[in-house]
Write a structure and sequence with these properties.
The protein is an alpha+beta fold. The chain has two domains: about 100 residues, Phosphorylase Kinase, domain 1 (2-Layer Sandwich), CATH 3.30.200.20; about 220 residues, Alpha-Beta Complex (Aminoglycoside 3'-phosphotransferase, Chain: A, domain 2), CATH 3.90.1200. It has nine helices and nine strands. It has a five-stranded antiparallel sheet with strand order 1-2-3-5-4, covered by helices on one side. Strands 6-9 form a two-stranded antiparallel sheet. Strand 7 and strand 8 form a beta hairpin. InterPro entries: ACAD10-like, ACAD10_11_N, Aminoglycoside_PTrfase, Kinase-like_dom_sf, Prot_kinase_dom, Ser/Thr_kinase_AS. GO terms for molecular function: ATP binding; protein kinase activity. Keywords: Kinase, Transferase.
Length: about 350
């Protein structure tokens, strides 16, 4: 990772909060493939700082101002599982880009393996599956108008815009011909549902964006990474989550984002049944949303892989992402043919 100089940041924090610069420690946090996150440690508190990735033209997906505004609106809406924003700085003179700070939520994050020293039973995973979906459902049922959440998106025509937008992103990011992704893109354009639902959606909802309580691994303390959150169709959110919700017989490369493939977790069909029971939405066309989720996962991986190929990102993990694209495309194609999720 490119090195950042933090002297100007420490001076800013001294100016804003009267923190002694000599007592502030800042270090990078490992984890996701998108925006960069740093831990800001003061003698009394810990904060998370978010900044766009290096070598990336700032777009809506990496807009720090918007992500900070999302967290502000979620506080007004009474959502209990979003970190509290602390500082937004829109000038690029301190860290080379806009950035924001929020409270650091202490807990456990499940990535591609169970953290050392953590014990999770099959019963724990069963309860975590339920609580994960409860957290998603709570988000989808938030009040939109008084909180101002409605101003963060344009729900009318959302599904159509998403399909066309992600198809265009794939065309611009492609580094080789992957027929399954091309065919999936065309199928999605031809099968856009007529009916749309409206709710606040996260757009990247999966285990590795959840902070779990160390004292009760099944309890969710916070949901992270709100950069793509908006007002749109909750079933598009569910479809993305289903795409990340790997099962034991899925390709190994698609298990790198979630531990849902371990015993005790809901299957994708059980996820759909639980959401269907508690959402009040019509899930008869859930295949479309699942296929869209797989396509979207493939496009995200393709975009990051292209940055790696162009030398704009040196993280060695990125080299394998082309295999994610291929696996997601193949799974999407097979789901369309078999109508099986």
């Amino acid at each position: 990772m490119k090195e950042l100089e933090f002297d100007k940041l420490k001076e800013l924090l001294h100016e804003k909060f009267n923190w002694d610069p000599s007592t502030i420690e800042i270090k990078a946090l490992s984890g996701g493939f998108s925006n960069l996150t740093f831990l800001v440690q003061t003698p009394t508190h810990r904060y998370a700082l978010r900044r766009p990735p290096f070598g990336y033209q700032i777009s809506s997906a990496h807009d720090m101002v918007r992500e900070s505004n999302v967290l502000e609106a979620l506080q007004r809406a009474g959502y209990s599982k979003s970190p509290k924003p602390v500082l937004l700085f829109e000038d690029e003179t301190v860290l080379g880009s806009p950035f924001f700070m929020m409270e650091f939520v202490e807990g456990i994050v499940l990535r591609n393996k169970i953290p050392q020293g953590v014990q999770i039973t099959e019963s724990d995973f069963l309860n975590l599956s339920k609580h994960t979906l409860d957290t998603l459902l709570e988000l989808h049922h938030l009040e939109l108008n008084r909180s101002g959440l409605i101003n963060l998106g344009k729900p009318e025509g959302y599904v159509n815009r998403q399909v066309l937008g992600w198809a265009d992103r794939y065309s611009r990011a492609a580094t080789e011909v992957i027929p399954e992704m091309e065919k999936t893109s065309e199928w999605l354009k031809l099968n856009i549902p007529d009916q749309e639902n409206v709710g606040f959606i996260h757009n990247d909802f999966k285990y590795d964006n959840l902070v779990l309580d160390p004292n009760n691994i099944t309890e969710i303390k916070a949901l992270l990474d709100w950069e793509m959150a908006t007002v749109g169709d909750p079933l598009m959110d569910l479809g993305t989550s289903l795409a990340y919700w790997a099962e034991s017989d899925d390709p190994e490369i698609l298990k790198m984002f979630n531990l849902t493939h371990l015993p005790g977790n809901f299957t994708r069909k059980e996820v759909i049944s639980y959401y269907d029971l508690h959402s009040g939405l019509d899930l008869s066309n859930i295949l479309f949303y699942y296929v869209f989720g797989l396509f979207k996962v493939g496009v995200i991986a393709q975009q990051i892989y292209k940055r790696y190929k162009l030398g704009q990102a040196a993280d060695p993990r990125f080299a394998a992402l082309i295999e994610v694209v291929k696996a997601a495309g193949k799974k999407a194609k097979n789901s369309i043919i078999t109508e099986n999720i």
